[in-house]
Design goal:
Blueprint (H helix, E strand, L loop, with lengths): L6 E9 L6 H10 L12 E10 L2 E10 L6 H8 L4 E7 L3 H5 L1 H12 L3 E7 L11 H11 L2 E4 L8 H26 L5 H16 L38
Parallel strand pairs: 1-3, 1-4, 4-5, 5-6
Antiparallel strand pairs: 2-3
Protein name: Ras-related protein Rab-23
Keywords: GTP-binding, Nucleotide-binding
Organism: Amphimedon queenslandica (Sponge)
């Protein structure tokens, strides 16, 4: 029998303010193409890519979400079921940096605590930076999230972002599976038989009237009443005197 490779499917949501490069990042990663033309995402978009992560076949389903508040009611519904998340901001946009924690809270409100990473995009425009490296590192340290500095234009660190997310998710899944297995303590069939026997003995036991202790088999006594068939009368000899 040929063993089929099992594929792990991971839903990824990429969130952040508008114009930070979310759509460009996803297209670069999933299709290998880049365009400088900016086109606002209306609602959500979806692309996917299959990769191999440490001998595991992984299919990443990457959801691109609109960054404008007017689309919040639409995009929130697509957060549900996400297993990993990219929180993206632009090096040249201070507002997008300030909004990172708000985006994190939005996703967690729908998905709970999932694997996340902070991405500082447009690092090729570092000379025009609106945020300091110290502020970025302080934020990620406070949120306890890993930071990637990327450039979609230069295709810098893009693959590494999604590889990191995939590995972290798979590692978390293995850890949870191990903990579930350790918490389960199945009773062996022999132990079940022994326990059942003890229970039956307790139910069928007889207590000594004097001290209330359970009698063992050796201490138990049985009286058998003789039946009529078992009784044989002894006949005395009859002697006649002549």
């Amino acid at each position: 029998m040929i063993e089929e490779d099992l594929e792990v499917a991971i839903k990824v949501v990429v969130v952040g303010n508008g114009a930070v490069g979310k759509s460009s990042m996803i297209r670069r990663y999933c299709k290998g193409v880049y365009t400088q033309d900016y086109k606002k995402t209306i609602g959500v978009d979806f692309l996917e890519r299959e990769i191999e992560v440490d001998d595991d076949n992984v299919r990443l389903m990457v959801w691109d979400t609109a960054g404008q508040e007017e689309f919040d009611s639409i995009t929130k519904a697509y957060y549900r079921g996400a297993q990993v998340c990219v929180l993206a901001f632009s090096t040249t946009d201070k507002d997008s940096f300030d909004a990172i924690e708000r985006w994190k809270n939005k996703v967690e409100a729908e998905c709970g605590a999932i694997v996340m990473v902070v991405v500082q995009n447009k690092i090729d425009l570092i000379d025009e930076s609106a945020v300091s490296a110290e502020d970025v590192e302080a934020l990620t340290k406070r949120l306890k999230l890993h930071l990637f500095r990327t450039s979609v234009k230069e295709n810098f660190n893009i693959d590494e972002v999604f590889l990191y997310l995939s590995r972290k998710f798979l590692s978390q899944q293995r850890k949870e599976a191990t903990e579930r297995a350790q918490n389960q303590q199945p009773t062996s069939s022999l132990a079940q038989i022994f326990t059942s026997s003890i229970d039956n003995l307790d139910k069928a036991g007889h207590k000594d009237n004097a001290n209330g202790k359970l009698k063992t088999n050796e201490e138990k006594s049985f009286k058998i009443k003789p039946t009529k068939e078992r009784v044989q009368r002894k006949h005395r000899p009859f002697c006649a005197l002549l």
